[in-house]
Amino acid sequence: MQRSPLALPFPDLGSIAGVRIGTASVAYKAWTRDCVTLVELAPGTVVAGVTTQSKCASPEVELCRAKLAGGQARGLIVNAGNSNAFTGLSGRQAAEAQAARVAERLGCDVGQVFSASTGVIGVPLPVDLALAGVDAAHARLGQADFLAATNAIGTTDTFPKAATASAMVGGARVTITGIVKGSGMIAPDMATMLGFIFSDAAITPALWQQMLAAATATSFNAITVDSDTSTSDTVLAFATGAAGNAPLASMDDAGADALAAALADVCRQLAILVVRDGEGASKLIEVTVSGAVDDASARRVAMSIANSPLVKTAIAGGDANWGRVVMAVGKAGEPAERDLLAIRFGDTLVAQAGAVVPGYDEAPVAAHLQGQEVRIAVDLGLGHGRARVWTCDLTHGYISINADYRS
Amino acid sequence: MQRSPLALPFPDLGSIAGVRIGTASVAYKAWTRDCVTLVELAPGTVVAGVTTQSKCASPEVELCRAKLAGGQARGLIVNAGNSNAFTGLSGRQAAEAQAARVAERLGCDVGQVFSASTGVIGVPLPVDLALAGVDAAHARLGQADFLAATNAIGTTDTFPKAATASAMVGGARVTITGIVKGSGMIAPDMATMLGFIFSDAAITPALWQQMLAAATATSFNAITVDSDTSTSDTVLAFATGAAGNAPLASMDDAGADALAAALADVCRQLAILVVRDGEGASKLIEVTVSGAVDDASARRVAMSIANSPLVKTAIAGGDANWGRVVMAVGKAGEPAERDLLAIRFGDTLVAQAGAVVPGYDEAPVAAHLQGQEVRIAVDLGLGHGRARVWTCDLTHGYISINADYRS
After folding, report:
1. Mean pLDDT across the stretch A76-91?
2. Which of B53, B84, B86, B193 to mutate: most A Cβ within 10 Å?
3. DSSP code for B246
4. Which of B118, B158, B177, B192 is catalytic?
5. Most buried of A127, B74, B179, B336 (most Cβ within 10 A)?
6. Spatial CB neighbours of B370, under 8 Å, sequence gap ≥ 6
7. Residue A121 pLDDT > 60, yes or no?
8. Nearest residue of B to residue A312 by CA position?
9. Dihedrals φ, ψ of B288, to 5°?
């Protein structure tokens, strides 16, 4: 798979105190690369998570949801090459057996071991490989860095994706580092997004979850590649407490705002990286909607634009086709008044008050559309609701990846 | 534009008593073909209609909605090559002026003249051409048949689309003939569906509207090409009363059921023809969902499958990728239980009870997917809700039509 033209360099990442990583190869697919990632987390590590809204979630997702209530984590195990989704009882048993093996190796409660899998659907995770993977990765704990882990959780991602940020919390510097795998495709499966965030912050599980949920709304839940939702999407955030800050328990605590902002920043960076590796993507598209009756309505209008195949193909073709944006606003089913709409491409006002602007000059818009980063802004003129989402264009590459190769 | 591989021959159509057609060329685009269609309807003709749910509807759509309340029609004017959508006050005035000219030529009330336009967005309908078109088409009234009208209302449709059916109503044979233009593209615009149905039935406006609304639910509202909704979608049904049947006023009247069934049949045929001419379509896909909690829920699940780019690209590739169907069910947001799901491709049960069937043999599924007509059936196992929708696959042709050519 060709590296995305929108790829960014892998950032300089240190380690996070309390986090040890080992990776191993067990070839769930015909891969020689590592595809099992084991992370050992220091005792006392706190966990937060968000999972797919799919009604057909994988057993790993179900197990994560159940264990998140406990708020504590000692281990994370990630399989790439087999999603274990829609595999019935045997898939569930395989996931449970693998988590039990992790608990045994790490000497912890299985309720503190979190799992995620991505890859082919409908094939139960092979238990022998899953257990061998735990053992092999455990033997190499501490030998893998974040780049190795990022490569090992990937499927057909075309570049490794990570982000980091730090914040001062009560005199201590706290670091947050996240890795993500995105919308690369692994035939015959849908794309899955898995994100893992590690911090040395000391924080209560409830506040960490609150921060992650808030950050997710404007990052992972504000991106779309093709409107499809995986059965396995999972974001887990771990906080080891090793930074030594006074433990945060409330957003009123000193430094809580800074930590939340750093977490939101990491999540936003990771989410945009997923779009930058969207299947066939040649352009990153930022869609901003303002003037909606409320933020939720703005988000739905923005997603209607970002998911419109006609908008996405127009951008792919460098076509300043604002009529398709009008169409996508109109079909969103949200409050909108045709004659109050204003539409911008880049910095250029294209349409206003229900019609194209007088003397509209397409040249600056066409120039903007030649770039790799395209901005579409719509003001609905109704209220103060705002939202920003990101997507990519829809190209022949998407069709080639998803239709041309038989599974 | 290449003729769709899913095209069907144009049916043998007679005329409908009380309906006279004239077409003319005024070149809204650089076309020599006819692009204005005028239909004169006998006094007493009843009209029913359904229009786009877009919040950014064209002035023609707004005018139709207002006039439908009257229930009577004497004229229909259709422009191809300019949709007149998002054109502000001048577009509205152009539509009104053209309807007024039709009323003048036909000697009728302007409230009984219906308009529809399809084509480029954001350019006000040129009034001089619009009026000249009325005059020229009026001079040729009675000289055009349904095929000529079908060609004149088209944009980049790759084949003309029509259907007919008849019913016995109280001893009189009543005919229903419909023509439709579909999801051909006219840069730089979105596709628009316009459908016009003509019958010689004698029927009250209220009952005719009731029949059309019911027929639309399982036809025009049960198809999707790419999930995008035009600002101009319009279906109008006219009943001249010339068949001489005892006028129908209630579904309890003799023959009402037969007429409703014939209307539903015509609408369903027309809707499927639109999908068969979907941009880049190489396969017609029928998605049936049963076992939902209710029909509306079944429809939303079916549309989630039919709109999924990953499902549509898999079908394009002849890939028996039932995992993507699981994904599309899961993301629909409707009640669904993973472990109760059953999925069929063609006549083959693929997955049941949350897992692939034991001993699953892909061969018959792969054979089914080689055909031009693909059937996907999902049973949710929850209730008695059912829905059937149609879509087409997503191919390189779609990208080529919508991205490769600058407007």
Report:
1. 93
2. B86
3. P
4. B192
5. B179
6. B318
7. yes
8. B403
9. -115, 130
| B164 part of the active site | no
d(CA B241, CA A357): 47
Read off the pLDDT of each residue in A310-335 and give the average, rounded to a whole number. Answer: 91
Is there a contact between A403 and B339 if contact means CB atoms under 8 Å apart? no
Half-sphere exposure of A390 (CA within 13 A, CB side): 21
Q: List residues bridging with B76 in a β-sheet.
A: B39, B114
Domains of chain A: 19-276 (3.60.70.12), 284-404 (3.10.20.340)
Contact B317 A402 (CB under 8 A): yes
Residue A399 to residue B316, Cβ atoms within 8 A: yes
pLDDT band at A275 (very low <50, low <70, confident <90, very high): very high
B367 touches chain A (CB under 8 A): no
Which residue does chain A place closest to B84, by CA atoms? A355
Chain B residues whose CB is inside 8 A of the A289 CB are none
Of B143 and B227, the one with more pLDDT:
B143
Chain B neighbors of A120, CB-CB under 8 A: 323
In Å, what is the CA distance from A325 to each residue of A22, A146, A160, A299, A341?
47, 40, 32, 15, 10
Length of chain B: 407
CB contact under 8 A, B227 and A227: yes
Q: In the predicted model, what is the mean pLDDT of residues B18-37?
A: 95
Tell me the average pLDDT across A154-171: 94
What part of B 144-163 touches A (C-beta under 8 Å)?
Answer: none
β-strand A373-379 against A342-345: which pairing, if any?
Answer: antiparallel
Task: Evaluate if residue B381 carries a pLDDT over 50.
Answer: yes
- B2: pLDDT confidence band, cut at 50, 70 and 90? confident
Is pLDDT above 50 for B237? yes
Q: Count how many Cα atoms sit within 13 Å of the Cα of residue A256 in the half-sphere of its side chain.
A: 17
Q: Is A228 on the interface with B (CB under 8 A)?
A: yes
pLDDT higher than threshold 50 for residue B188: no
Contact criterion met (CB < 8 Å) for B309 and A337: no
Q: Do A229 and B399 touch (CB under 8 A)?
A: no
Which two structure tokens, joined as six digits, stand for B208? Answer: 């005719």
Q: How far apart are CA B179 and CA B151, in angstroms?
A: 10
> In sequence order, which ranges of A69-190 are alpha helices (DSSP H)?
88-106, 127-139, 146-153
Confidence of residue B331 (pLDDT cuts 50, 70, 90): confident
| Mean of the per-residue pLDDT values of chain A | 93
- A330 CB neighbours in chain B (<8 A) are 52, 54-57, 229, 231
Query: Strands B46-51 and B36-41: what pairing?
Result: unpaired
Helices (H), B230-308: 256-276, 295-306
Name which residue leads in pLDDT, A55 or B257. Answer: B257
Instruction: Say whether residue A345 is in contact with chain B using an 8 A CB cutoff.
Output: no
How many whole angstroms separate alpha carbon A335 and alpha carbon A356?
21
Using a CB-CB cut-off of 8 Å, the residues of chain B touching A324 are: 188-190, 228
Half-sphere exposure of B88 (CA within 13 A, CB side): 14
- In whole angstroms, give the CA distance from residue A33 to residue A20: 20
Per residue in A214-254, pLDDT (tens digit) is 999 999 999 888 777 778 889 999 999 999 999 999 999 99
| Closest listed residue to residue A241, CA positions, set A197, A202, A198, A199 | A202
Measured between beta carbons, the chain A residues lying within 8 angstroms of B331 are: 53-55, 228-229
